[in-house]
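Chapter review: from sequence to fold.
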Amino acid sequence: MKNSVVIKSNKSGMTVIMAPEVPFEQLLSDLAVKFEESARFWGAAQMALTLAGRPVTPEQEFQIANVIMEHSQIEIVCLVDLDGDRTRRCEKALNEKLMELSSATGQFYKGCLKKGESLESEASIVVIGDVEPGARITARGNVIVLGELKGTVTAGASGNESAVIVALTMAPVQLKIGDLVTKTNEKGRRLGRGAMKAEIENGEICVSPIKKSFFNVINSI
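The token string follows.
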């Protein structure tokens, strides 16, 4: 393990240099140990991750990021890729995935919702952007906000208590699922670090973190 993984800090976050000859599963195991041992050093932080030393697939990139987040208090906010062609391919794949999700869930909205604006959906809705204080979303199904949620959201508006609300940053004024409502969050306090999911458990709305890659967050809804 000593020579299989080297971690270096950089201006935007960290670089993980991986030995090319080590089997990938062994590399993941070594990463887990390495970050558990250095968790106190890194502390709780949001970082960009750069991978070097060996070629990896997008799926392997997400596996590496997940291992780091699961064995430390680090939140990987993005993967830095210097390969322009691969970046464009990833952006294309992301857009295709979002359009597929839009088709499956019923509605797809790109843009920020500002104070006084509202959005309604007869099914589920995916918002690519922020929901500012004073903005409101109402949906009969799930609500997914790929940005900062600081407004008011109602999911399961028809009384569906199995609906969920997901946001990359969860700091809402108020959440409602089915007939249950959270207390008003007038100070805009963040309900945890990183991507969060709100759902009904034991008769109340519970908010919990999602320590998964972006695509796994989408696929979990």
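Two observations follow directly from the output. Residues 45 and 74 are 5 Å apart (CA to CA). The chain has a mean pLDDT of 82.
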